[in-house]
Design a protein that fits this description.
Elements (H helix, E strand, L loop, with lengths): L1 H24 L8 H13 L3 E6 L3 E6 L8 E7 L26 H17 L7 E7 L7 H7 L6 E14 L3 E3 L2 E2 L3 E10 L3 E2 L9 H19 L6 E10 L5 E2 L2 E10 L2 H22 L2 E10 L3 E2 L1 H15 L4 E3 L11 H4 L4 E9 L19 H20 L3
Parallel strand pairs: 3-4, 3-5, 5-16, 6-15
Antiparallel strand pairs: 1-2, 2-4, 6-16, 7-14, 8-12, 8-13, 9-11, 10-12
Helix pairs in contact: 1-3, 1-9, 3-9, 5-6, 7-9
Bound molecules: nickel (II) ion.
The site of nickel (II) ion (NI) has 4 residues, from loops.
Length: 395
């Protein structure tokens, strides 16, 4: 069967390139993936999938029904949105939509999803259950998975597979990790209320700017003294605003930030810990405060059994030297976590790095993809789906 999958992959390779380049040159922002979704729906419709559009706002669900009597579903998720970045990469298929760019490789993800769908549709075999492709919108804003789940895409889903491109892994290689792959990401907003006054008479006022700087400093120092150093936490205050004039003491400051963590215990501790610090500092200096702490996405937890299934498939398809076990998780975030929170899933990293030129990071205006990665992606995904159904039916 693997040789059939590889043969179909080779046959569709030119079409795959065309698909990826088309999507790359027509990027759309999160929640506005109308053209991309219609394009993806067109491709899967033409290979016989049951297609539903406008799921999770601008998402697409494409199903290949199984022949068995099981209602079990294997989901394969790819995201479709681009970023508000002006593309600086010099490509013949560079972005036609000024100020939008596929700088996170979601064009490759969509192409891999479509390629794997094309292969499974053409394979001359019947699966016992339904293979459901999820073309998800709005991953960059961490909204799309939630929208899709609210629209019922997880019904009967037994397991889910996903991928993300990675420029520091060579094209043709696959990166795998069981357990945590990405971090839990939470949003933080702190409002500090002091009392305004003349800049020359600070003793008659409560200086919200000075207190805010104490809050930021104390939070950063306290991480190393209060939280378990073996369970990493990153807190970044990315915005600070307040004040009206150079000689007027500010009565209000707003801080916003992001908090990343990997360990569930420490994740639970964080809101209380922040509250204690902010309360203590504000009380000491006579200020009031408000905190809005919003958990956004949990950590992507890769199921060990599924991760090894994908590893075995990638190894069989690509060769032993093309598998890389990822030593450390990333403190980045990925809304694929909302699926793996509910059912077993695994996300692998698809290497897209060039062997012989600069590999710019994800979200960089010069980010580029070595397109030799496409075949490794579709073959790994299609063969993993095939093997999932083989294992389920006891072969
Ligand atoms: Ni991404």
């Amino acid at each position: 069967m693997l040789s059939d999958i590889k043969a179909i992959a080779d046959k569709i390779a030119p079409r795959l390139l065309e698909i990826r380049r088309h999507i790359h040159s027509h990027p759309e922002l999160s929640g506005q993936e109308y053209q991309t979704a219609a394009y993806a729906a067109g491709v899967v419709s033409s290979c016989g999938f049951h297609v539903q559009e406008m799921v999770g706002k601008t998402g697409v669900v494409a199903e290949l029904p199984g022949s068995g009597d099981t209602s079990k579903v294997l989901a394969i998720r790819t995201d479709m949105d681009a970023l508000p970045i002006v593309e600086k990469a010099e490509l013949p298929f560079t972005s036609k939509n000024l100020g939008m760019m596929h700088a996170c490789g979601h064009d490759v993800h969509t192409a891999v999803g479509l390629g794997a769908a094309m292969i499974l549709a053409e394979l001359d075999c019947q699966f016992p259950g339904t293979t459901r492709f999820l073309f998800q919108p709005a991953e960059e804003t961490a909204q799309g998975a939630k929208w899709m789940i609210e629209d019922g895409v997880m019904q009967d889903v037994e397991a889910i597979l996903g991928l993300h491109v990675f420029p520091s892994i060579r094209a043709g290689h696959i990166g795998l990790r069981q357990g945590a792959l990405t971090a839990a990401a939470d949003d933080l907003e702190i409002l500090i209320y002091g009392e305004s006054g003349h800049g020359a008479r600070p003793h008659e006022a409560v200086d919200a700017i000075w207190i805010a700087t104490q809050v930021v400093t104390t939070l950063q120092q306290s991480i190393s003294r209060t939280l378990n150093p073996l369970h990493p936490v990153v807190l970044t205050i990315g915005q600070i605003s307040g004040g009206r004039a150079p000689n007027v003491i500010a009565d209000q400051v707003r801080l916003t930030g992001t908090v990343r963590s990997l360990h569930p215990d420490v994740h639970q501790q964080i809101p209380d810990w922040i509250d204690k610090i902010v309360a203590g500092v504000c009380q000491a200096h006579g200020a009031r405060y408000d905190i809005n702490y919003q958990p956004r996405v949990p950590s992507v937890m890769n199921d060990p059994v599924l991760t090894h299934l994908v590893a075995d498939c990638a190894q069989a398809a690509l060769g032993e030297d093309y598998i890389e076990w990822i030593a450390e998780p990333s403190l980045g975030a990925e809304d694929f976590a909302l699926y793996t929170e509910k059912i077993p899933g695994t996300m692998f990293r698809l290497g897209v790095g060039f062997p012989d030129k600069t590999n710019y990071p994800l979200h960089h205006p010069q980010f580029e993809v070595d397109e030799r990665s496409l075949l490794a992606g579709v073959v790994t995904m299609a063969y993993s789906a095939y093997q999932f159904w083989q294992k389920l039916s006891g072969h």
